[in-house]
Fold each of these.
Amino acid sequence: MAGKESPLVWIDCEMTGLNPDSEEIIEIFCLVTDGDLNLKDEEGWGTVVHQTQERMDKMDEWCTKQHGGSGLTARVVGSTTTPEEAADGLLAYIKKHVPHAGVALLAGSSVHHDRAFLRRAPYNRVTDHLHYRILDVSSIKEAAKRWAPKVAKKVPNKKGTHLARDDILESIEEAKYYREGLFAKALQVDELEKKIAEYEKRFAKESKKNTKKAAAAAEKNEN
């Protein structure tokens, strides 16, 4: 499937910590775009996954302050959604927009970290449906810092709420910024080549039609 047609599944997870072997996903949000970053569904899908207050009390200082301050901790404790239900809901949403496995890339900011958590059961059914490659906006950002510093300096500031929906929307906007700032010329070339190909196709069609007309006229004159 061509790049612009290949869908991107944008996922952001909030966790109780950084270690995928010992910490838990507590919030997930997902949006799907086409390869040109157009949303297939503006509403998206998201859920807060239940953990007990006792489990939340074991978070490190940063997570305790951040998730407590944003209200996420209270929402997690009050949620009734299990990890299994979250995984089923997420996969169903993705399949609604991307029914075929191995087609869509997982996308986001530092999304390799989210993927490390999602590869654990029960969420691994989600990563199994996606392509093995990812589109990491953070990697584009690091490349821009080194090879296009003027572009990197003007990237829009993020709110930094560490709420999954906000983070995903900011990642998509950041990707759009880099697309225009780093790849605009390439996009223009693609559009020009597309127009040339369309012209050549029309020209060939008209030429074929004219050849047939000329042959018919010649045959008529002979008769």
Amino acid sequence: MNLEIGAIIKNLRTQHKITQDQLATFLGVTPQAISRWEAGNGYPDIETLPSIANFFSVSTDELLGMNRTEKE
């Protein structure tokens, strides 16, 4: 598994036309945290992953970049 969660979060966020500030407010983190994740300079806490997935209506597997071939 190639952990590209920051790029995936950024892609989902831009697809949904959500700002870093809006996502940060929903998750209860700082906009700087979102920026770090998207830049690949850090990762969300494991407790935050389900909230991010729910916000974007994706599974945590999708959020972590796991596709069908990697699951099989």
